[in-house]
Amino acid sequence: MPETQKRLFQEKTGATAAQMADLEIFRERLVEANAVMNLVGPDSLPDFWNRHAWDSAQLLAHAPTALTWADLGAGAGFPGVVLTILLKGRPGAHVWLVDSLGKRCRFLQSVVDELHLPATVLNGRAEAQSVTCDIVTARAVAPLDKLLGYAQPYFERGAQGLFLKGEKAESELIEARKSWQFEAELAPSQSDPRGRIVSIRRVRRVRPRP
């Protein structure tokens, strides 16, 4: 089954042999690191190619010309490392991998170094970084109302948001509109029928009523 999923991933993404080799090394390093720290649920690792790799890679179809991305709460490298591998070799491509936990950043840095990826690992709070990018993204970091707060500085510098969300995406949008004004579009996830990709732009905080 993993080999079948791997072939399907390559067919759907058009990944090159070199990119697939990088992704396989990333998968191996994730398995090794996950044995000593909690990066992803261990039960999800056998489904790496669909649940993690394809879930991440599908974002590229929503912003095919975007070259610079910031992944907030990058954690195990989803979607950021997968995106970086698939963008590797494109002139001007760069991904910022932002995480507040040092041990996760050390894991991410080791992968970036080994695979010579066009990425910068930033250890700190997402909202404290001075990154300018085309797309700000995140997966499994926080409910949307909080996530927009983390991402607000990136929006102010011109970024669009593309966030991987689960089956509560619609209710999170309703809740977020209590504190924020924004334009949003929902698209179905290609990796999980329950999931949604939330596209966000023109974000500003709602002033509380006196």
Automatic annotation (TrEMBL):
Pfam family, one: GidB
Localization terms from the record: Cytoplasm
Recorded GO MF terms: methyltransferase activity
InterPro entries tied to this protein: rRNA_ssu_MeTfrase_G, SAM-dependent_MTases_sf
Keyword annotations: Cytoplasm, Methyltransferase, rRNA processing, S-adenosyl-L-methionine, Transferase
Enzyme class, spelled out: transferase
Keyword Methyltransferase: yes
Catalyzed reaction equations: guanosine(527) in 16S rRNA + S-adenosyl-L-methionine = N(7)-methylguanosine(527) in 16S rRNA + S-adenosyl-L-homocysteine
Matches recorded under Gene3D superfamilies: Vaccinia Virus protein VP39
Residues reported to bind S-adenosyl-L-methionine: G73, F78, A126, E127, R139
EC number(s) reported in the record: 2.1.1.170
Gene Ontology terms describing biological process: methylation
PANTHER family associated with the record: S-ADENOSYL-L-METHIONINE-DEPENDENT METHYLTRANSFERASES SUPERFAMILY PROTEIN
Family stated for the protein in its record: Belongs to the methyltransferase superfamily. RNA methyltransferase RsmG family.
Function (record text): Specifically methylates the N7 position of guanine in position 527 of 16S rRNA.
HAMAP family: 16SrRNA_methyltr_G (MF_00074)
Name used for this protein in its record: Ribosomal RNA small subunit methyltransferase G
Organism, as annotated: Brevundimonas albigilva
Lineage: Bacteria, Pseudomonadati, Pseudomonadota, Alphaproteobacteria, Caulobacterales
